[in-house]
Amino acid sequence: MAETDRSRAFTKNVKRIVVKVGTAVVTGKDGRLALGRLGAICEQLAELNSEGFEVILVSSGAVGLGRQRLRYRQLVNSSFADLQKPQHELDGKACAAVGQSSLMAYYETMFDQMDVTVAQMLVTDKDFRDKDFRKQLSETVKAMMKMRVIPVFNENDAISTRKAPYKDSTGIFWDNDSLAALLSLELKADLLILLSDVEGLYTGPPSDPNSTLIHTYIKEKHQEEITFGEKSKLGRGGMTAKVKAAVSAAYGGIPVIITSGFAAENIAKVLNGLRVGTLFHQDAHLWAPVVDTTSREMAVAARESSRKLQALSSEDRKNILLDIANALEANEKTIKAENDLDVAAAQQAGYEESLVARLVMKPGKISSLAASIRQLAEMDDPIGRVLAKTEIADGLVLEKTSSPLGVLLIVFESRPDALVQIASLAIRSGNGLLLKGGKEARQSNAILHKVITDAIPKTVGGKLIGLVTSREEIPDLLKLDDVIDLVIPRGSNKLVSQIKNSTKIPVLGHADGICHVYVDKSCNVDMAKRVVSDAKLDYPAACNAMETLLVHKDLEDNGVLKELIYALQANGVTLYGGPGASGKLNIPETKSFHHEYSSKACTVEIVEDVHGAIDHIHNHGSAHTDCIVTEDGEVAEIFLRQVDSAAVFHNASTRFCDGFRFGLGAEVGISTSRIHARGPVGVEGLLTTRWIMRGQGQVVEADKGVAYTHKDLPVLKRTEAVENGC
Predict the structure, then answer these.
(1) How many CA atoms within 13 Å lie on the side-chain side of 409?
(2) CA–centroid distance for 261 within its chain
(3) Measured between alpha carbons, how far is 119 from 106 in angstroms, rounded to an integer?
(4) How far apart, in Å, are the Cα atoms of 345 and each of 163, 411, 436, 440, 442?
(5) Number of CB atoms found within 10 A of residue 50's CB
(6) Average confidence score pLDDT of the chain
(7) Which of 364, 472, 565, 718 is at 20 to 30 A from 254, Cα to Cα?
């Protein structure tokens, strides 16, 4: 987790790539070519070739493919009596000779379909002992690169003088992994990718559930810690050979990635700088400390720190929040400087205006955040509050009390202020926390996390709040259903859906913010214009901003609809109409009612009445926040009772749907779920309950030893309980 983004920055300058595919990738379990898998790899290489990359392929698989073909030939040419006799092992060199022609025929056929020319390059260990050969090899490959030809290398096992190809590891190279490393150095490649049948290098055998993927290999740390499993049953190498080859190339100055050839687009992901597989680099020890932190270790540390936090007094927990508020204000200039860097980078990258708007920490934002934290600190302590009290029997009392959930994983969007709100709520509710913010806010999130964790006393520890720095770490965290208790994704519909489909951990949140304002025929016109304008313009990028304006049909005739439209258009709002409004208002028709603009744009539609508005909201809304503007109390009650959304308002802007504005202090998000918490999720939504029983030695004895009373007892407020000595 401590690895920085510098570890994958080298991919920006890559031009010449060596890709090695292992036997387990090239062939299936039956020894036949894995056509689909190999075709996908060829397609990636052809695309790189067309983009101007210089691609060199090193391919294993000839021996395995030849063995499969010769076994078939042996079977066809054998009598029944021959088959009853013990079958001799096929000659490996004969297998190589037969398989190589078949393998190359496939590559030629596949690449030809993509208008790419390939060239077969068979070499032996002996060849590389000749300086003239090495010089000529470099010149030949250079000439092919100019013509966009992809050379396909393989060791020429058929004529190799190596006595036992599967056991002899002597020489300049000893298998195709080491050949790939040698070629990378010899041909001055910028990157070597070794494709395997597993995701990368693990701390132990990949089949062992306790093994974890090593994202960056640090020789000083990992060479003594790794336990290798069995080598590949199809090829000669296995992970031991790959690591040896990778270390050799990496310390010769060639970055190496070991990753899966089974996963689609892995080569492209590597070149895009994504953290895929295991990286070997000569500077790896500078990027990450020798002592690294795994996803599990980070989650466990957050849980342990949360228990220390819960053990503190209510006053001590309150003081932590006050210290954080003070620290934020004291570091405002530093925070603003880091935020400016994020904003400038986002603008330079050409991000959408709505995303940049979320990213900006406007003047006064730090003061506002500090004020909300202080408000949260002054709230009644939510931990250990007695919610119900029952006398089970004489002298046996049961209490239902509030309790922290445990460890939360929050994946949130580009808004850096969300980090502060979420962290303060986690501390107030006694929960451990893992945070993954948007990459666009990387600098802002890092400084905010540092300021907050530095303010947490050592008795609790800064590990109470962990900051996840890479998107690629999320899948590992989503597997930790025994350590993480709740996931709250704040982002796109796609993000929320992906997380829900990828974890056993309960997920709380909302996918879209399709918020409606319905203006009824009995509205106060000036009020309607104020509410509609505020709901759209106060913060267009917010999830509680109006995305659809619904208007009663009678307002078209009396001119109110035109006034509402003018109020929006005069402030730069782009309008799209539904089938009933686009023609009448002369505006483009919307492609979908279920669309979150998150910008100065919205949809307008005309409806029959309040029931038509309710039906429209149920059919096209996201159950987030919806509002009615009307002076008719009966119509308002129909709307408030029947609209099935997390928040439903009468004569008030949808922008009020916010944890701070609700008096919750802050929010971790807005939930449209119907289980646990709904609407803005503050401290209460981050709590569960547990049962505390106090007795005097009572036993059950098959329910004969106790006389049940089940009598409700009064619940005292915390201050009353203290005064009474409870």
Answers:
(1) 30
(2) 21
(3) 12
(4) 58, 21, 19, 8, 11
(5) 12
(6) 87
(7) 472
Instruction: Tell me the HSE value of 503 on the side-chain side, using a 13 A CA sphere.
Output: 27
Mean pLDDT over 303-323 rounds to 95
Give the least confident one: 317-331, 432-446, 554-568: 432-446
Check residue 233 and give its pLDDT. 39
Q: State the Cα–Cα distance between residues 703 and 288, nearest whole angstrom.
A: 61
Say how far apart CA 262 and CA 717 lie, in whole Å: 60
Which residue reads 């070149």 in tokens?
A: 271
Q: What integer pLDDT is reported at residue 574 of this predicted model? A: 96
Tens-place pLDDT, residues 227-242 = 555 544 333 347 888 8
Other CB atoms within 10 A of residue 307 CB:
14
Token readout for 461 is: 């520890």
Looking at residue 204, its amino acid is: G
Q: Which domains are delineated in the chain?
A: 6-286 (3.40.1160.10), 295-501 (3.40.605.10), 515-667 (3.40.309.10)
CA 450 – CA 465 distance, rounded (Å): 10
d(CA 302, CA 29): 43
Distance CA 654, CA 529 (A): 13
Token pair recorded at residue 118: 């390939």
Can you read off the two tokens belonging to residue 53? 């990359």
Residue 642, φ and ψ in degrees, nearest 5: -100, -25
- The owner of tokens 């000659």 is 91
pLDDT of residue 114 exceeding 90: yes
- Residue 72 pLDDT > 80, yes or no? no
Q: Where are the alpha helices (DSSP H) in 406-492?
A: 417-429, 442-454, 474-478
Nearest to 219 by CA among 166, 150, 290: 290
pLDDT confidence band for 542 (50 / 70 / 90): confident
Q: What is the CA radius of gyration of the chain?
A: 33
Residue 562 Cα distances to 53, 227, 505, 516, angstroms: 57, 73, 49, 18
Angle between helices 633-642 and 610-620 (to 10 degrees): 20
Q: Is 434 helix (H, G, I), strand (E, B) or coil?
A: strand
Token output for 709: 């009373």
Residue 5 confidence (pLDDT) above 50: no
Q: What is the mean pLDDT of residues 157-175?
A: 64
**What is the C-alpha to C-alpha distance for residues 495 and 609, in angstroms, rounded to an integer?**
36
